[in-house]
Description:
Number of strands: 2
Shape: elongated
Order of helices and strands: EEHHH
Amino acid sequence: MKGVRRDVVEVQEPGDENIEKILVFFKPGCPAIKLGTQEETARTYAQKLITWHRVPSKTWIWAIGAVLVVAGVLLAVQWLL
């Protein structure tokens, strides 16, 4: 795929043992293509995709915390009764 078109970048070995490569297709007129930084932009995007599924989002952390607080309150109420 390398050299076929300027708006397609192949990222080899993106950092996950389960993913062999990632193809990133840039829209025509994208600023990364105009600046010639499409390889760097594609690698950054691929790294964000890889780390996204590994790190829990803040929403999940807040939800787990809320469940723990509710469970603690219910235990305290039960203990007082």
